[in-house]
Design a protein that fits this description.
369 residues, 3 domains, six-stranded antiparallel beta barrel, four-stranded mixed β-sheet, 6 helices, disordered N terminus
């Protein structure tokens, strides 16, 4: 893939022209093994120990509610009491339970403020149960928060860098329940391609069959390859997967052009081709000048001095660089060299590529972000 952005457009075009060779990729980086997946966890907790940057309980009553419930569970009766601490904040706690995680293992968690807390710096998450989609508790989180930003304020100004209302707790959750998945009992496992493609799936099939010297894999569709573990002669499915996951496969990818209009970033796949087309690029310059005039009344006459607006507007069209023809079957490097010869900036190139696609001359998926 070629990335062109800003002033590096011409340099990248020269250095990367002609690079169209796909490198082999490990099988484990191209597919997901059916059943070998993580599970999302979420919880609602409380962070304490903040330096006056917590939730304003008048604006976040749910923080007061969870704090009251927590204190009552600890044997402290606060019913009817009025307290307004500023060192607590309600947060959502999220984590991913990795596949084959065992009870007692630790995983990282992310905390995000849901009230009007200004910062989570220096806070500590109090014991928070984490639930999966089935409503069961699979882990419990607790620990000191490492916030991802900083903030400072005075009487008349406030400065914030990063996002101080979100942070992480490395190893902050301990797994309490395991997810049952009997990998050892499987006779067949499916390999799900992350990017479905007939050619890539066929290459995966050939590589696995070549590794074992017999037909143990078959392509079911462009996104799935069935792997018959029972015919591999391996002692367990884990051994069979470990033998094939590092096989090198040359993936096939669709020709694609990805454009981020906000940043002016253009990503062009090496397989992009265009038909015979002519390109002309020019621009318009709009000039508006304000020259207000002061008008005064005649001497000794009634009236007052006023300012009369005077504006001059003009539109100028640049001469451009003429009409450039791009022949049929042009490759990536030739497209870049041709547009670069026209002196086209990345943002102008976006408009040209849009026009090429609309004209049916650009043969690639066109993705606009």
């Amino acid at each position: 893939m070629i990335v062109l952005r800003g002033a590096l457009f011409a340099i990248m075009a020269i250095l990367l022209a002609g690079l169209a060779v796909a490198n082999p990729v490990r099988l484990k980086d191209l597919v997901e093994f059916d059943g070998v997946r993580g599970n999302d966890l979420v919880g609602y907790g409380l962070i304490v120990g903040l330096n006056g940057t917590g939730d304003g309980l008048r604006n976040a009553p749910f923080t007061e509610e969870i704090m009251t419930n927590m204190l009552e569970r600890l044997g402290v009766n606060v019913t009817g009491e009025q307290f307004r601490p500023k060192n607590v904040a309600a947060v959502l706690v999220t984590a991913t339970l990795p596949p084959f995680a065992r009870a007692g293992s630790q995983i990282d968690v992310t905390v995000s403020a849901i009230g009007d807390a200004k910062s989570l710096l220096g806070g500590t998450l109090v014991m928070t149960p984490l639930n999966a989609a089935d409503g069961e508790i699979y882990a419990v989180a607790q620990g000191s928060v490492i916030a991802g930003g900083a903030s400072a304020e005075g009487d008349g100004a406030r400065v914030v860098r990063g996002v101080p209302t979100a942070g992480v707790i490395p190893g902050g959750a301990r797994i309490e329940r395991e997810i049952d998945f009997a990998l050892s009992s499987l006779d067949e496992i499916r390999l799900a391609l992350r990017t479905a493609d007939f050619t890539t799936a066929a290459r995966i099939e050939r590589a696995i069959n070549g590794e074992f010297g017999r037909e143990v894999a078959i392509m079911l569709d462009p996104g799935t390859v069935a792997f018959d573990i029972s015919r591999t002669g391996m002692r367990s499915p884990a051994h069979a997967i470990g033998r094939v996951e590092n096989l090198l496969i040359e993936p096939e990818r669709r020709a694609r052009v990805v454009i981020d209009q906000k940043s002016g970033t253009i990503v062009i796949g090496s397989d992009v081709r265009i038909s015979r087309v002519a390109v002309s690029q020019s621009g318009l310059t709009l000039r508006i000048e304000e020259a207000p005039e002061v008008v005064q009344p005649n001497p000794f006459s009634p009236g007052e001095t006023v300012v009369v607006p005077r504006s001059r507007a003009a539109i100028e069209e640049d001469a451009g660089t003429g009409l450039a023809e791009i022949p049929e079957g042009t490759s990536l490097s030739e497209v870049i060299a041709g547009l670069n010869a026209l002196g086209v900036a990345p943002r102008d190139m976006i408009d040209i590529l849009k026009a090429m696609k609309a004209a049916g001359a650009l043969h690639a998926d066109f993705v606009l972000n």
